[in-house]
Amino acid sequence: MLRKWERQVWDTINAALFSISEPRVVPLLFYSLLTYLHDENMIVIKCARCKTKIFKYLKIGKGKVLRCFEEWIAEDSGLREEGQVKCPKCGNLIGVEEEKWVKMNRSGFTYSGKVIKK
User: Fold this and answer.
1) What's the rounded Cα separation, in Å, for the pair 34 and 113?
2) DSSP string over 53-108
3) Structural contact between residues 33 and 17, judged by C-beta atoms closer than 8 angstroms
4) Closest residue by Cα to residue 57 from 107, 2, 112
5) How many structural domains comprise the chain?
6) In a domain, 22, yes or no
7) pLDDT value at position 72?
8) Same domain, 54 and 79
């Protein structure tokens, strides 16, 4: 079952694919959708100690930030060593890398920004 915003994106893409006869326009549509999602709905994750920017992350849905999926991280300035994500300035532990995501250490970071609600 798709979420409401996922259904809207899916319907927009399907409508564009079937109504556009010019194949060069389709990549522009995908680019504009990704730009909209990434520019409007990003949160900035910062170190709790020194307030250094660690991630710029696409957060969808209400709730706590428990893990950050790798494909939704737009900008990554964290220091990664031995499977751990640390602050490059003070060395504070932000999270631990797992297969497809970073499991976040809740006391190691703060975040701010707009969040999409499901």
Assistant:
1) 18
2) EEEEEE-BSSS---EEEGGGEEEE--EEETTEEE-TTT--EEEEE-SSEEEE-GGG
3) no
4) 112
5) 2
6) yes
7) 84
8) yes
Phi then psi for 54, rounded to 5 degrees? Answer: -105, -55
Question: Domain of 59?
Answer: 42-113
55 found inside a domain? yes
Q: Is the residue at 17 inside a domain? A: yes
Question: DSSP letter at 116?
Answer: B
Task: Give the pLDDT of residue 116.
Answer: 58
Nearest to 74 by CA among 110, 40, 116: 40
* Closest to 43 in 3D by CA, of 104, 96, 98: 104
Provide the 10 A C-beta neighbour count for residue 63.
Answer: 9
Domain check: are 34 and 46 in the same one?
Answer: no
Q: Are residues 51 and 27 in the same domain?
A: no
For 6, the enclosing helix (H) or strand (E) is helix 4-19
- In this prediction, the residues of the chain whose per-residue pLDDT falls under 70 are 1-10, 13-40, 114-118
26 plus 75 within the same structural domain: no
